[in-house]
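haha ok so turns out i had the wrong file open the whole time. this is the CORRECT one, sorry everyone. sequence first:
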Amino acid sequence: MSQPIRILLALVIGLAVGIVAAAAAPEAALRWTGLAEPIGTAWLNGLRMTIVPLVVGLLVTGIAQTAESARAGKLATRSILFFVAVLWTSSILAAILTPLFLDLWPLNPQAAAALRSSFSSASPAGPVPSIADFFTSLIPVNPLAAAANDAFLPLIVFTTVFGFAVTRLPAAQREVLTSFFRALADAMLIVIGWVLWLAPLGVFALAYVVGARAGTSAFGLLVHYVLIVAGVGAVVWGLAYPLAVFGGRVPLRRFMSATTSAQAVAISTQSSLASLPAMLRGCERLDVPVATSGVVLPLAVALFRATGPAMNLAVAIYVAHIFGMHLGPAQMAAGIAAGAITTMGAVSLPGSISYVSSIAPIAIAMGVPIEPLALLVAVETLPDIVRTLGNVTMDVAVTATIAERSGVRGERSEADDLLEAEG
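then structure:
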């Protein structure tokens, strides 16, 4: 049984046990939450302790990888600039769409109140900062203090500047620092793997608390959450089609046909990397030369996850909505920036592994409690399918657009002929 399925089953069983216990013996069920809640909190803290070093390590190595790719030539540079534009657009869309969807399909107030009561240790941040305070806080006086106090946006700004500074060092020094931060990130991923091995226990404990306190409304809340977050991702996924039609000058039916195989692999594997061969074949059917797709698609798989900023920020906004928080312009700006920047350093791993490490920095930057993430990770398998579908479809659309704008779409090379012969 795969780890995501184990976690999902732990969620369902924990909720069911909590609901049944509350119905059979309400007072005893609530007493048992006093035992279960510390277990779930300890498991969440195990994930939280990896976030700062992981984000720093991934950002530095991601920036170094981006800079190395940009040095490879104009095509790589053009691709990276295009990726950055799409990532920021994706993040901005989440800030617009998520509140809109929550207004159109509001969350049951009783369910939200019940879930809030289940996370007694969680509390929203203090007063909403003004725009002036927001811009002042972007530059950390002490980066170590920013890390210690979970001031993620200033930490991200410093790490981004530091990462670009590393790329300007001589090759030997650059390699030393890049290797160190790569090793740091890899070590944190190993720790996350260990913590996630205990995820069924932690999720069961948290789900029991939610089931005992929230009752059956917890199931409805989780379904509502999946639909809202997946809906935001689906919009980004859908934007790949007009991008291919208008940017890549590809007929809609032809683009849909060319991406079918990659989407099938994406659904079955939830991995953009595993979908890469099918994406290359799809680009071939769109008359994109291998010399172009062979550069753009691997870069896209390594650096570019179009749905990441949108869906990650949507999760943070959803949690804020559960806690009745009003997110001001400064908080939204912090979320947009954190969502777009951290995605460039995100790892191409299944959602259950990268979920908390990707979303927690955004939530913390916005002053949103992250405790519910430990429960919501259990249903990430479902939105993760939309994430991967949107990513692979956008990868192909971006590749076709770059090929068209570079004036190379339709050109053939010896590599194209060889690929066709082998196929």
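The two ends are 35 Å apart (CA to CA).
again sry for the mixup
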